[in-house]
Amino acid sequence: MNYSNDSRDVAAVTSPGSIGSHSYEPGALRSALDIKQGGTFNLGALLCDRHCAQGRGEHMALIWENHTGLRKSFTFDDLRRHSNAWAHKLAELGVKPGDRVCLFVDRVPDLYFAFLGILKLGAVAQPLFSQFMADALEVRLADADTRAVITTGRHLEKVRSVRARLPALAWVILTDVKSGAHPTLVEGEVVMTAEEAPPVEFTPFPANEDTPSLLHYTSGTTGRPKGAQHVHGSVLSQYATTRHVLDLRPDDVYWCTADPGWVTGTSYGIIGPWAVGATQAIFEAGFSAQRWYEFIARHRVTVFYTAPTAIRMLMKAPPPTPDQLVSLRHMCSVGEPLNPAAVLWAERVMGRPFHDTYWQTETGAIMISNVPGLPIKPGSMGKPVPSIAAAILDQQTFQPIAVPGKVGLIAFRPPWPSMFRGYFKAEKTYQSKFVGDYYLTGDRGSVDRDGYYWFVGRDDDVINTAGHLVGPFEVESALLRHPAVAESAAVSKPDPTYGEVVKAFIVLRPEHAGSDELKLDIMNFVRKHLSPLAMPHAIDFVEKLPKTRSGKIVRRMLRAQEWGEPVGDLSSLDD
Ligand code: WTA
Predict the structure, then answer these.
(1) What's the gap in Å between 125 CA and the centre of ligand 1?
(2) What is the four-CA torsion angle of 144, 149, 152, 156, rounded to 10 degrees?
(3) FRET label pair with 228: which of 124, 297, 310, 519, CA 20 to 30 Å apart?
(4) Which domain holds residue 540?
(5) How far apart are alpha carbons 163 and 189 in whole angstroms?
(6) How far is the CA of 336 from the centre of ligand 1 (A)?
């Protein structure tokens, strides 16, 4: 695949090349990362062994703290040794290069060691948000034919409850044997804690830029969640944007609040920062504004990457004390629209604005952003990063729109190094994301006269709650399993804190009557079976749902109603 900068003339493409000292030229990126063009390398080794070979083995890589106040720290040499132990253990269990290994674990240090170990072995990491419940877990493990799951006692019951239906799943690996948190192990369950494993050397699998590295599950409008397939070469994009957009340098202390179950937590919570060689601070604890400010102060965090929901929660809490945030020099946001008020609040209360960044699981790296030095227009996502060809396409013709401010589809022209290479076992869905020269993001937006991009909304029915994508089909499938539910439609509803929440319209079975108790019961049912994120925050019981002539539910009408937008004419609906 050719990653070279392309200078074909396309509407709304921005500057290719470099800004300041940061080059996006693939050759320069490869040499910065010691990757030989067409040669072999290994992403796992690149993120830790490379720093050790360069004499930075004693540099702090990970400062970790959890909700009980327990603190640990690890150097790049610790990462090297502990990831070797994981690669060795997985190989010993018979895991082969290319096999999928799921990380279903809270943000404990072994998550990071195992992630690197999986890559060193040439296997494929499949991170899943540990708050997923059994139904969400099963669908994703079944789709990926996952061979091993790494988890802790806390989540073991969920794995056990689905295991019998997953013939490919050979091993469940527990990382917390010392805590005594899990019951007696059964066949196929083993224990592995890298800090207690004997030291081993491991020769990393000779990958190349196209070798599969990660399978990240993401939700669409229809059907099951899809596994976006990423490759070792993605690091070129992640490194360039971590340097240039997040402005990260090796001597920084960086905190990314995203969980590695989601793409921000891997691209910019593992790969980008450790490709740069910076120190990461990780806080395994729930949200509390005061504790977050104290964490920044205690570890002298210099660069902070978070999401608008968290920023809106900070805005509601008491402000930091003047001395708490003095170490911070750069802050970025991702995952959902960043309200202008949040940018201005941060400037006033935190001492600097948030810089928005826009991208997706599929793009693997930041595509549009407010880079340092670019004047921020609050409410805009900024401009495409160098070397990325972006455009707003007409929704009918799929041609680039040249008119400033006119809303269309946000699209990018491939390739770029971190571009996903397919949806696992879903080639047709993958192909449907491309029209002509463009990859379609599924988002709508516009570009102004100055080349700034403005997000408008999704072009599909996916619900973005607190920056997490929830597929309506998955919620509706869970609802259908509730004995009172005959039919349902899940749509997004605006929410002042979470941006959007799930709202369900439900037709009950004839023998059931609607009540507040039943609403609560249904909400809990989804939370327990699917995930707390997918739980409807509101339910309306209705007589019938809007449908096309052939019987397809029209979610967009219900959604429009929730957002106070024109609902349209139901009688004209067709498929
Ligand atoms: C949305 C997360 C507005 C968008 C990295 C996108 C955003 C989806 C922004 C991807 C932003 C992401 N402003 N919306 N700055 N960033 N989104 O795959 O709808 O979990 O398509 O990747 O989140 O979510 P995903």
Answers:
(1) 22
(2) 80
(3) 310
(4) 463-563
(5) 11
(6) 5
In short, whether 263's Cβ falls inside 6 Å of ligand 1 is yes
Does 291 fall in a domain? yes
CB of 121 sitting under 6 A from ligand 1: no
Query: Among positive and negative, which fits the CA dihedral 136, 138, 139, 144?
Result: positive
Distance CA 447, CA 412 (A): 13
Is residue 258 within 6 Å of ligand 1 at its C-beta?
no
Entry pTM:
0.94
- Are residues 209 and 112 part of one domain? yes
Q: Six-digit token pair at 463? A: 């619900």
Q: Which tokens hold the place of 16?
A: 């290719």
Ligand 1: centre distance to CA 431 (Å): 20
Q: What is the pLDDT along the chain (575 residues), one digit of tens a residue?
A: 232 332 222 222 233 334 445 688 999 999 999 999 999 999 999 999 999 999 999 999 999 999 999 999 999 999 999 999 999 999 999 999 999 999 999 999 999 999 999 999 999 999 999 999 999 999 999 999 999 999 999 999 999 999 999 999 999 999 986 545 556 889 999 999 999 999 999 999 999 999 999 999 999 877 789 999 999 999 999 999 999 999 999 999 999 999 999 999 999 999 999 999 999 999 999 999 999 999 999 999 999 999 999 999 999 999 999 899 999 999 999 999 999 999 999 999 999 999 999 999 999 999 999 999 999 999 999 999 999 999 999 999 999 998 999 999 999 999 999 999 999 999 999 999 999 999 999 999 999 999 999 999 999 999 999 999 999 999 999 999 999 999 999 999 999 999 999 999 999 999 999 999 999 999 999 999 999 999 999 999 999 999 988 888 999 999 999 999 988 766 555 54
The enclosing domain of 107 has a CATH number of 3.40.50.12780
Q: DSSP letter at 68?
A: T
How far away, in angstroms, is 521 Cα from ligand 1 center? 31
End residue of a domain, out of 379, 397, 422: 379
- Ligand 1 atom, smallest distance to 267 CA: 5
Q: Is 206 helix (H, G, I), strand (E, B) or coil?
A: coil
Residue that finishes a domain, picked among 379, 408, 443:
379
